[in-house]
Amino acid sequence: xxxxxxxxxxxxxxNPVMWNDKPFCCHGCKTVYQILNQSEMKQYxxxxxxxxxxxxxxxxxxKYAFLDLEEVKEKLLDFxxxxxGKVTFFVPGIHCASCIWLLENLNTLHPGIIHSSVxxxxxxxxITFKEDEISLRQIAELLASIHYVPxxxxxxxxxxxxxxxxxxxxxxIGITGFVLMNVMFYNIPEYLPGGEFLGxxxxxxxxxxxxxxSIPVVVYCSNDYFLSAIKSMKHKIxxxxxxxxxxxTTLFLQSAYDVISGTGIGYLDSLAxxxxxxxxxxxxxxxxxxALSFERDYKSYFPIAVTKIENNKENVILLEKxxxxxxxxxxxxxxxPADSVLINGDGNIDYSFVTGESLPVLKHKGExxxxxxxxxxxxxxxxxNKDIEQSYxxxxxxxxxxxxxxxxxLNDLVNNVxxxxxxxxxxxxxxxxxxxxxxxxSVALFAFTSVLIVACPCALALTVPFSFGSTMRQFGRxxxxxxxxxxxxxxxxxxxxxxxxxxxxxxxxAMKIEFVGEDLDEEMILMIKSLVRHxxxxxxxxxxxxxxxxxxxxxENFIEIPAMGISGNVNGIKMNVGSRKFVTGKDDKNxxxxxxxxxxxxxxxxxxxxxxxxxxEGLPEVIENLKKTNDLHLITGDNESEKANLEKLFGMDTVLxxxxxxxxxxxxxxxxxxxxxSVLMIGDGLNDAGxxxxxxxxxxxxxxxxxxSPACDxxxxxxxxxxxxxxxxxxxxxxxxxxxxxxxxxxxxIFGIYFAVTGLLTPVFAAILMPISSISVVAFATFNVSFFxxxxxxx
Amino acid sequence: MSVIFLLVIIGVVVAGLFLAAFIxxxxxxxxxxxxSPSVRxxxxxxxxxxxxxxxxxxxxxxxKE
Lengths: 795, 65
Description:
The complex is a heterodimer of chains A (about 800) and B (about 60).
Chain A: E1 17-19, E2 22-24, H1 27-38, H2 44-47, H3 70-76, E3 77-81, E4 84-90, H4 97-104, H5 106-109, E5 113-119, E6 124-130, H6 136-145, H7 154-157, H8 164-191, H9 200-221, H10 223-234, H11 241-261, H12 268-286, H13 298-301, E7 305-310, E8 313-318, E9 327-330, E10 340-344, E11 347-350, H14 352-355, E12 361-363, E13 368-369, E14 374-375, E15 380-384, H15 392-399, H16 413-439, H17 441-454, H18 458-477, E16 480-482, H19 486-493, E17 496-500, H20 501-505, E18 506-517, H21 522-532, H22 538-546, E19 555-561, E20 565-570, E21 573-578, H23 580-584, E22 595-601, E23 604-615, H24 619-627, E24 631-635, H25 643-650, E25 655-657, H26 662-674, E26 679-683, H27 689-694, E27 697-702, E28 714-717, H28 724-757, H29 763-792
Parallel strand pairs in A: 17-24, 17-26, 24-25, 26-27, 27-28
Antiparallel strand pairs in A: 1-2, 3-4, 4-6, 5-6, 7-8, 7-9, 9-15, 10-13, 10-15, 11-12, 11-14, 16-28, 18-23, 19-20, 20-21, 21-22, 22-23
Helix pairs in contact in A: 8-9, 8-12, 9-11, 9-12, 10-11, 11-12, 11-17, 12-18, 12-29, 16-17, 17-28, 18-28, 18-29, 19-28, 21-22, 24-28, 28-29
Chain B: H1 3-27, H2 36-40, H3 52-64
């Protein structure tokens, strides 16, 4: 263990980069420290310890050149007037108080910035700046230079108006709260003994006041329930909102009748209380992860602009302006935006996100390359031969729109229950009304409305928001983020689980490495490590991570030949590391199916490294536990090299499919669903995007949850993979809690209905019973969820 | 007892003012981010820092380099 980096806290290794007697893990971190130090912004390091972010690539280059384009500026700027611009950047790196401090003091780093503020949960940075002093591009580069790399995607150009809905909900809660407090205040004389001695004119006055202030609750705050009740009626479905709407209406009409006729003060306190609780439930359930995106499509994966080559000149153009026949330049680590032909340079293309294949593919001049690949190595020139919309990858995404995954089925538990519930309540109300019609007609209407009032399924409607809402929060705390609470119920219904391999059940980066050949001594290992240190190839990176030793040797005459290998003089000794062809000169097929890296030392071939994928921790246990209740399947884009290992892991009865294209995966899920199975798909990359969308529940495994992940229902942090079975099992528990809560609220209802049918329901009784039932159910649900979740996840 | 009428009216008006304040606070976006204001208030005004000596020694070292 070396010292922790002052900037980012990462281990600096044996040879830290030193500056001012302070250790840094890399030059990038040191540079940020220097920038901040010069600007007297060292407080950054005092608010939190080691708050910085490590960024692997430091060279920004022309990455943000597209921000100079007028069209982009126009779309990106929130506001621009008389030389002042305002812009919103999504900065996934925001994670602590120091980040807020630094980003809000950006004006110290550049005087052109007038004001900067941070929205922490959304991880957004709002910047107001003088347009003649600093350009949009310079702001982005400034942020990148202090390692707060802004993420600007095609998607973010189409601004959506999220969060607006949240605001109206808060407003509704506020208004209803106001009404509730006032109406309760007016009703206090009714609650207390001796209230009836209050003068007649007071009761009338209080009644009218309650009626007037309650009007906004009925016409504005509860309009969602009416709208949704009407909507589901049109589809001939009885949803939970129907009895709620009936309850609200009867409460209001009965109260209005009481007040206008001067017979009483009505049930308006119960009405306001009911709506208040319902809205709180909605708010609790609706609190989602604002910085996470579950809806990303290919647009947010692609760059906004590309470098077009025209008459030997490089021009940055918007991606949407790209046409077939254009020539473009793709630099190291840049994405290929559309299917095209390589016309210049050596392509070394990493398709890992598209196909799941973990190693880059070598492409020569004249060969086709496909959209979604990433060039690793020197810049290449391409000729686009298909429009972006027609590229293979884009088409795969567009296929998704055909499979409608909306919740139109409405077959969830609450709505199932409420169908019977509504019918039963209506019949009881009618029966009570008819009974009294023959015995005492003056009570008949009152008995009828009383039943509807007291049976209003407030507690019933709150059960699910609170049980599932707190389940979702518990999951979130454990690294499993759900798009919305409905996913819990769907997850519970799952019968079939389909896994992707690369990146899902295996680590996307780390590999298991074995050396076959001569025994390597420490010295040799260190020499190999020193050599691979200079290469960015994924296999070099994997070797570097896995080999021991920290005192590196100098490497001279280092050469990297794409798709072949690297060579150089270490300690004056010639070494080659690379493919079989590169090191041995033999051009025959690799038979072991494992990935091999050969080593040449001085005058002989030392041997080879065999590299295998490493499975995620806890995988055997997860599989074993999930197997008990589900069918397991595995589909992968890789070859069969791991077949034996996988069979050992999954057992012989699991369906394993290799060499599956993204479309194959999608079709496989479709087929499973056609057989009536409820399918959970677990994947990680673009290659799984179609399948994730097609399945009943799609879970994405992500190392960095704020980074790009395909559209899905839930995101699981990769380090929590070992708890996957527990998460799925826990949905059982939450559903049971819901069921018990239902039972409790039914008991309250039966109790209340008894009073209602006998015509004894008084406003006080309703005002006490209804909040108590709601609060107790809410408390029961939330308490149990947190209790059982601590029990389930304690180890 | 008729003072109750007056009090109730005043009560509604006062509560109404608070409601108006709440509506304003929601509309002005105060509920959008409940975390950063809580840390923002703790930040010192960094311009006139008390680290001025350590800073000057740092800059000295920089110039030496």
